[in-house]
What we know:
The protein is of the alpha+beta class. The protein has a domain at 3-245: 2-Layer Sandwich (Nucleotidyltransferase, domain 5). 38% of the residues lie in helices and 21% in strands. The chain has a 7-stranded mixed sheet with strand order 17-18-16-15-21-22-23. The chain has a 6-stranded mixed sheet with strand order 3-2-1-5-14-13. A two-stranded antiparallel ribbon has the order 4-7.
Amino acid sequence: MSYLVGIDLGSTSLKAVVHDVRGKVLASASRPTERFHPDKAHPDWTVWQPEQIWGGTAEALREAVGKLDDARKVRAVAVTGMGMDGVPIAPDGAWLYPFISWLDPRTAPQLEWWTKHVGIDKTFGIGGNPVWAINSALRILWMKEHEPKILARADKWLLIEDFLNFMLCGRRATDYSMASCTMLFDQRTLSWSDKMLKVSGVSRSLMPDAFPAGTVLGEVHAKAAKATGLAEGTPVVLGGHDHLCGALPVGAFKPGVVLDVTGTWEIVSTSIPKPVLTRQVHKAGLTIQAHVGRGVHAAWASTPAGESLEWFRNQLCARQPGEAKSADDWGVLMAEAAKSPPGAGGVVFLPHLSGSTCPVVDPHSRGCFSGLRSMATRGDLVRAIIEGLDYQFLDMLVSFEKGLGTKAKRIVAVGGATKNGFWMQNKADVVGKTIEAPEIEEATPLGAAILAGIGVGVYKNEQDAYEKVCRPGRVYKPNAALGKKYAKGFELYRELYPALRGLNAKVAAL
């Protein structure tokens, strides 16, 4: 039997998962991703320490691989994870500075400079990137300004997945999907952009060569084998950005398939045959990125989702000391929501607790319950939150269709929210389309394992891998009788933001 290993570097955990060629999980282990605040003068500065990223991942690998009958049966390993966080590496391989985490606010001045001197339209028109403070280029600019001597010693700037590949096999490289996170990559040519490098002042020599996901980088060397339990000589294959890897085992690498990843945040993505870098797409809050699937790009947007429910539960449904069971149990809240009628008794929720990102980009927007009356119940409020999140999802779908000229032929859902049957059924009812929730334990590390398998010939291509690992799950079909009601509810929902925009801007100014 052949095994494939997917490593997932997330903001909360570092996971190592061993799969067979059919996608079944054979062994797994994880370690926490630890946040550090090393500068007492700046307590909000947040970093990942390279030694903890490597050490924690190596421990997880050693535990997972140790559960196998023979580590030599691992055919290949690939890494996936979060996008923009990078580390400068010296010519001798030493890391020179911690990863500046996406949670770290220090690059706000660089964001202002970039917006003024480079421009958001130019940035999107070349790289498909919205200008966010977390983009890699701004971390490099911060280093140039505040730690120039350290940056001058760097041979390469490696993103977090690339760093782990380097630790495993010694190769300094990246894939197209990760390079797309930097604001320095050209989506049309799939190469580093001379224009963006020149205007930013970032040296081309600092950026590692970029290759398609699924490219074999090298082999696990002796030192890494000792640390991880992997056999020396195990092929190391390029993975890619986490949410795009998650598209592979559910077939969302094909145009017309929309992937909905819903947890604390919701990421909606679809594949497109070529990059669409228009102002309309940019204004809708979409990102255009090279896909880990060969020959296609991805269009995606993300917005907070489950955090609204978490906020409601944590702030308004706290369990009393000594109480065995109360409304902070999800089952209780969902049962109450199910008793509320469709339309939540007239309560409409705008889920902008962390601003708005798509289809309207407005960081000053605020969340809102509208239509509150004295007879509104807690169940009404919970149902209103879920309906508001599903209206938001529908709004994103409409934005995708208008901006890209595509239709969602199939919607596939993964993530923690798929365990909530009430939420999934309501989403199907609001959208008026069938939603599939495949039985995939963890799509992201499985996607990395698929790329590992493609790299060494276990699978012919993405389609071959999908056919082997696909696991049909629950299918949620829309209730046609609710279609008209939710269509009217969607119209009301879309009026909320414009009505509150001016007021929220004044509140933000205060």
